[in-house]
Each structure stands twice: as C-alpha cells, then as structure tokens.
Design goal:
The structure is a single chain. By secondary structure, the chain is an all-alpha fold. About 60% of the residues lie in helices and about 0% in strands. α3 (about 50-55) packs across α4. The longest helix is centred in the first third of the chain and has 16 residues, at about 1-15.
Length: about 110
C-alpha cells in the first residue's frame, strides 16, 4: 500500500509541476545601459559589491541597481550617505546630464 501512496503523490507532483511557475522571478529593467557610470566606476574602484553598498546605505540592491542602470535619483538622505561612503561630492556622484533637462523641459540649474 505504501508504494501506491508514493506513486499517487509523485503523479500529483508531476501534474502540479508541469503547469509551470506563473510568478515572475526576475524584474525586467527598462534597459541594461549604464546610466550612472561614475557611481559604477567608484564601486568598482573601491572593490565594493552593489549588494554590500546597498546594505551600508540601508537600501535594497534593486534600488541601487536602478540608480546605476536606469538613472533613477535616490532621495536626498541616501544621496548624502552614498557620497560619504564613496568620499565623493554628491553633486558629482548623482549629476544629471544636461540632455535630461532638455528632454523634460526643466530649467537648467546654476
């Protein structure tokens, strides 16, 4: 009788597994282009992994990936903390290219 139970369980498992996993496992980035080369270069120069840097900041590694690969700007406190960790002025570390201002019609800062 035990063999029959095992066979039933394995058949049920195969039936469930054959349906596949519907949950997305990985987040898709908008692009794989590096938007913040300076930040990525400093992390490389400091031999600091993105996940370790994110942990020091109290942010998720996905947020730091978004800063690097998608050009997302972090909040003021995280910008300051990141600049302190990497010993770099925050204006340089999170500098927005002038072309971005032209695209969205913002006034170019002084």
């Amino acid at each position: 009788m035990e063999e029959d139970e095992i066979a039933d369980k394995s058949e049920r498992a195969r039936a469930v597994l054959s349906k596949g996993i519907r949950k997305k496992r990985f987040r898709r980035l908008r692009s794989w282009e590096v938007k913040n080369r300076y930040l990525l270069g400093l992390l490389f120069a400091e031999d600091l992994k993105i996940s370790d840097f994110a942990e020091q900041l109290g942010a998720s590694h996905r947020a730091v990936n978004a800063w690097i690969y998608e050009g997302v700007l972090p909040g003021r406190e995280r910008r300051k903390k990141a600049a302190d960790i990497l010993r770099c002025p925050e204006e340089v570390l999170f500098m927005e290219p002038m072309s971005e201002y032209r695209k969205i019609g913002k006034k170019i800062p002084d």
